[in-house]
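Posted in: Protein Modeling Q&A

I'm a second-year student putting together a small comparison for a lab meeting, and my supervisor asked me to include a predicted structure for RING-type domain-containing protein. I've never done this before, so apologies if this is the wrong subforum. The sequence is pasted below exactly as I got it from our records. If anyone can share the structure token output, I'd also love a short note on what stands out.
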Amino acid sequence: MPGTEYTLTGFDDFPERQLVVFVKPLPGTRVCSVCGVVPFRSVLLPCGHVLCQVCRGQIPTEGGTCPLDGMEFAHADIVRVTFKQSYLEQHRVFCVAGGEQCSFEGRLCDMKDHLTECGSDKGRCPICQQFVVRSASVEHCRQCSAEAPPRKPVGPTAVSSVLEKLGDMRKDLEGILERASSEDLDKNAVVNGVNSLMEHVATLEGQFANIEKETSGDQCDSLLSALKTAACTPGPYRSVSKHGNFIATCVFSDVCSENKALVFESRSHVISSEICTLAGYTFKLECSFPDYNRLVSFSLKICEGAWDLCVEWPFSKKVTLILTHPVNMDKDKRLQVSMQDPQACKKPVRGSANEGTSAGIVEWEYVERHGLISNNGLYVNVEFE
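Accepted answer (user: helix_wrangler)
Welcome! Here is the predicted structure, written out as tokens:
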């Protein structure tokens, strides 16, 4: 297949380090002259060579020389260049999944829709373990003459261990329900019970993954059915600080990986939680990593929701964000959100979200040092008063 391969970096709508085959070579000013990546941000040296952020970071700020021709340059001589994604998307590319097996050739912006339907990539046959083009995988399995590897029966020890933990989970649930219905409600005891329940769930997930590799399909289905009956929504939760308040939990998934990638790339980025509804208001949280200075800020954006006609506007509730420790409530970090900006508190326009309101900046080192990360996610409880 003709074309030129480039690795993309820094573009929000593409997986980091995505390898793409372009129909025609990109202009030299868009490609790092040293490592060959196509970066969102780069610098142009007086000699005409281009450096991505990673390569530029390996050269002294003052008194640097081009690694290719040795020409000296000052910091004031370099030109910062941004490759807008809207321009990049107009270039024609080949399919990144099917390669030579796929006939797709189109604009980069059209490739995302194509990938949802492309069957030219390969998957492994569950019978012979050979790689087969997905568009022909069903017919291949029907005609495959290899023998499927036998699956071992589940031993009584593994089954009894799973059933024992299911019993423990049931006891935890009964204890939580009993405490929740008591007039003298012990919030700490309820929270500790939920955390204990989540530990059982995590252990069961690992055990079931191991059993699934060695057991027959019928046995897997029966165990999976038992697990589903004891399912519990994940995440460390907190009760409201006083009667009449409302609280919900949002999560920033894979936040550690996001932060490490941003530090490595020396760029800023924003990640969002899922849309949430609380007290009739619909909103989302945003977690911002400004540049690469190890700081993180949080903001709340009110979005259009199904209950907008039933709630009061402008939004006037007091908002608190609680960076939640997985176990110890004493290590929670509480942030007050100042909902004073009229543009942030107005009724959202159809199909859009209001401007965000910041809850302040926290050092990422604080988040790590106090153990606020759980399962590579940062849980934030949102309380409306």
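A couple of things worth pointing out for your meeting: Confidence is low (pLDDT under 50) at residues 226-234. Residues 172 and 193 are 6 Å apart (CA to CA).
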